[in-house]
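Sequence decides. Our protein:
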Amino acid sequence: MPGSQVGNSARVKGPTTGRVRRHSVELYERDFSFAPTAVQPAPPPPPRNPPRPLGELSDVSVEEIAKLAGAAFGTDGSQSSAANVASAMRRLLEHLEEFPGATWQERWEAAGLNERGRLAKDLYQGRSQAVKSRMNTSAGHAFAMRLIQPSLLAFRSYRFSNYIGWFRHLAQDPVLEEFCARAMALPMSRPSICKAKFDVCTALTVFDIDIADLTPEALLHYAVESRKYGVTPREAGGDGCFAATQAWAVLADMGHFPASAPRTLRAAVVKGQRTVAELVHKHKIRNQGVRDLLVDYLSRRAVEVDYSTLNAMVGNLVRLFWKEIEKFNPDQADLRLSEDAVTHWKESLLLRPDGKPRLHLDGPFLAVRAFYLDLHTWAVAEPERWAHWVAPCPIRDEDLRWFHVRRRRLQERMANRTRERQPLLPVLSRHVTDQWQRQRTLLEAARGVGLGERFTVDGTEWQRVSAKLDAQRLDPASAPVRAVNRATGELVQLTHTENQVFWQWAIVETLRLAGLRAEELTELTHLSVRNYQRPSGEVVALLVITPSKSDRERVIPMSAELFHVIAQVIRRHISAHGTVPVCTRYDLHEKVWSEPLPYLFQNMFGGALRAMSTTTMWRMIRRAAEDLVSSDPRFADVKFAAHDFRRLFATELVNNGLPIHIGAALLGHLNIQTTRGYVAVFDDDVVRHYHEFLARRRAERPENEYRKPTETEWNEFNEHFDKRRVELGSCGRPYGTPCQHEHACIRCPMLSINPKMLPRLDEIEEDVLARRKRAVAEGWRGEIEGLDLTLTFLRSKREQTRRFQRVGTVDLGLPHPRPRSQHSDQQRGHQQSGLMQGLITQIHPIHPSCPQLGEALRTDVLQKPPHRPPAIEERMRHHRDHQPGRQPGP
């Protein structure tokens, strides 16, 4: 461990730079989001003249060092204070003399105090806490005197009260003093300023150099090692935080770093776009041939897609597909997969690494299918390169058979998500607005009084306070405003809090009123605000949206509310900087830095202005929603995303009557069906639109058609159905229409034969046959033709009626529940009988002339036992016999 720590003594022979670099490489392999590009981390070389503010003390006696420490760190200059410091230093060095070594540095390392967690107070077991505390303070004095050069892990194991003051007092370095002055002038909070100065003092201590020798490579090495070992809060590996972010920005602004160095630490550590080979190699595929194939395939596909799509393809093909295949069969060397391997892969896709079900299976399926089919196609044109890898595709047609069903389920989940959040959106909007108005009022009231004075806002008494650090600023007016609640004693950072709630309000309101994508919101600049003068002289404010997902620029007419939000953002920048300052923006999807532009949504990050990222916006939205959980429990289970505002915006536009094609243009959709998928349909909207349709239809129809019928009209209505009853059954002609076939009922297609009248049809057939026989004998050819037509209709009607009389069951092969007790069977039988009686009652009016159909249903459904195939009966019998507590039997 000590050999891999930053800042081992340069006096010790055999430097450990190689080991440090090896650990750094392991870090980068684990986390590719942040890795050095333009600046490579490296510890500074040992200086030719190491800084020794009190002279070379490596072999000076204990008494001389104690006397120097007392004179340097006597807090009030009195002999008693200097004597206490000298006494504590003397006691520490006397213990170090017990360990071997020619210098104090060698004795320090021999005592094991240059390792993480080993403190100077550990040398004094059994002593009081006050004595142990003074020993740790003496260790800090030794570090500031450059008597001992600690490693990074050893130094960060201590918690010194005023190490910055000790170090600056002894260093007396003009460059260091300029750095501290510039840090004090930054519009940052007190902890951020102290952190910037502390990082620089720590780096100078562990590297044993002056600030003039602090290069970008050395500071980046310190930041990377701090993040790697997690020696400070919020700097543990994996969370994207680095040490010295504020210090880097100050050193770059004061011209300490070369002009070629990045202006921020983040710009120095982000990896940016990686090559296809890097994207594939980070997954460590075992087979070299398959790895090269994937690199070649993805390199060819990368020409036609953007970087984020390419990254998704790598995730689907390499991480989700081939890595799982190699887990199942490490020796798999080609794309011809066995059925077991394919089954294992498909089962592994069902769950995410966190154990939750994977809802989107079509992405990996379509990527793998495209991979195999592309190889099939390319092998025809270039067989020498691709034919060797041609194999059957593991994605069958049945795997994608339910693609459209899954898409509909996805649309249903999105629509349900929109319905859940629509009633909560006004609550969230009102909350962020009220919160900003309240904090703005409180901040303005605090700025109107002097330090120490009291003021009252909404019945609450406050007192403005300041920190000691604020008095050291070049411009004390730039210090953050703080106030104490006199009732609760709570200290509130009014400037910081008001800044946070303002951007929460601006983000929520802009997304709500403009329906922008999250990336489009981050790309808004001062140049996006335009105006258009109509022929009537009216000036319309426009918001120009730069091309993002659809690669098409669009213009949104701003409402008065949206224009107010954008104006407040611009006014805030102008009041703070005189104009909207230019800054850079890092695209989290494309992994590139933009050109400096006057972005509207920018803020101070790490001591420098930078455009907000989509992650920052998501965190602000989430924080605003979490603040409402205590007052509105509905927000406990609901999380707002930036795209939820876009769906709510589309739903509100279309449901309020805006034509959907205009909504598609405002949203930037190339296909109107995409906009249709964004719109959620509510039950009350369906009812409302149906009633609106009825009102429009009734308004267009004559009013007399909706008047109350007279008694004569009602009698005529009833007589119509009485007149439809004829000898053989009933006529199905609609109301208000006369008989069109001159009552030739046997030939009329509207006649429905009553099954009871089948014998009457036989009698009519005998009569018609007798009449036809005489017509043949008399030679009445016209009569013969008419009688033949009557016979045709008669026999057709009789066959149709007999089909209604056929009774039989159709076995559908449906499983039946196991038998229950006799009482439950009787009860269930009564329930089923009632249900079927209702069903038959509904069926019978549809066939009023077929009473035998209803009788057949009663006989077949209510009385006959269910018929099951022998295979199903056997399975059910086996299931019953193996039930716990049951005896085998029929």
